[in-house]
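Support case: iron/sulfur cluster complex. Customer-provided input:
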Amino acid sequence: MGQTFAQKVLAAKAGLPRVEVGQIVDVEPDVCLSHDNTAAIAKTFAKIGVERVKNPDRFVIVLDHTVPASTEEYAKGHKEIREFVAKQGIQAFYDVGVGVCHQVLPEMGFALPGRLIVGADSHTTAYGALGAFSAGVGRSEMAALYATSRIWLKTPASFRIDVRGKLQEPVTSKDLVLKIIGDIGADGALYKSVEYAGEAIEAMSVSSRLVLSNMAIEMGAKNGYCAPDKKTFAFLESRARATYAPVYPDPDAVYEKLLTYDASKLGPQVAKPHTVDHVSPVEEVEGTKIDQALLGTCTNGRLEDLHAAARYLEGKRIARGVRMIVLPASREILLDAMREGLVEIFLRAGAMVLNAGCGPCLGAHQGVLAAGEVCVSTANRNFQGRMGSNEAATYLASPATVAASAVTGVITDPRKAVRGGGA
Amino acid sequence: MIEGKVWKYGDDVNTDVIFAGKYTYKPMTPAEMAEHALEDLDPTFAKGVKPGDILVAGANFGCGSSREQAATCVKASGVAAVIAVSFSRIFFRNAINEGLPVVELASGTSMIAKDDTVKIDFDQGIVTHKGKEYRFPALPREVLAILNDGGLIPHVKKTLGSAKT
Ligand code: SF4
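Agent response - structure generated as follows:
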């Protein structure tokens, strides 16, 4: 009987010929990620009473959540992390300004096919887009990893999501993943390893696949895999830190569920307040007045997302009374956006361009919402109170929908929007 | 090997009924948490539970939020193990890392009723109920070691401490 991607990676890492669904393995992850929460993790680690991190080369720490520090308390946390990293000799430390962890790991070549990656952040699922097995873990578990480098994992059952046909521009992977989450629910793939496959996935860029894997956690999944291909290898060519061996599911692998979608029939989707699975076609919420538009985050803050948005903003003005925030996922992306003239398009349209980081996505700073305000955002979560006031509301959508809405001041179907010059 | 009296519940016992959201931001000791264990599911549980009792449920036990207190309060109430058809991922991890044994009996738990006695053999992976044996995938040595040491952090302390001497 064939094995799924999850079975094959976990068996390889556990040094076993095969593992069954439900089987627990004791493994050593290739990469362990943490961010601003490293300050708290380091405190738990201190309680264990071990002086040194066992294998500092396995850890990547990225400061991204509140960068640069917006309060004295955050500044203190960052300082403690810098001291911890220096003391423990952790080389892979990315200080404020480099980017959001889920972009930095792929960009810096840590997220590789066949690797096992764990992170003290729920969107660690993102690296499945490059063919890694990557899952979120708790903070105490990360502290234990500092001490032992090992963790136990349970082999999950798998879902296969087959997406046939072609996405019709301006519909993107964000609309697709919102549609899937809306259909199966926020716990629809609880604990499962999700394998995305089919023509539409093969046609996607690595950036678009990162959106699918990033949001796998929003349907409860442990992992969200896309098969590595020529595009993956090209993306990694100048980046990969190590050699890697791609892992593919067997053709006769056993899946708990098979879901099929037709990409060619899909229109723009929106997740309404206050849950990610509260999804409807954009038509249903068209005309909803907005106060803020957020383009970016680890979900949709890549160059292709900024390009998609710029098509609606070039030569246009953002609607009166609307604040538009552009939050690139990394410094590299911001540099590319500058070179390609996108930053100028955004600024001329009246948007603000922030340094790479998380800030407004989690309501930490730089664009929090007041009571009664509405935001349309390209992020991955719209839980009540996440972006500021408990009485604010966030709609999640694609970069095209967000940009088209910023221009009109109401949620707008990008298919009906008038595009700016050039594009 | 443990043997205990059963408290029996159904499918989808979520973390809200195991440990209510209204308590999650109140600082409480595990013993105080135990006083509210399963409060919204079975008000008689917290008062009636005896050390060594076994909680048995249906599918998807511990679904809902990631709150660690759901595992902490069950453990602190004296429950020796939880048997369910399946667990939510986070509850399963939290339980083991808190030192609360969890048994996944995929074949079903409907034959077990409240106040029955069940026996669990963790090494062999066998639940015995009314003379019948039901198999479950035995936990590997490493995970059993975490359970036996009372949870992840004490376990790591112990293994590394003994490694030093
Ligand atoms: S951008 Fe948002 S979702 Fe992504 S890591 Fe930062 S806070 Fe989390």
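The pocket of iron/sulfur cluster is lined by residues A 64-65, 100-102, 121, 123, 297-298, 358, 361-362, 379-380 (CB under 6 Å).

Case will auto-close in a few days if no follow-up is received.
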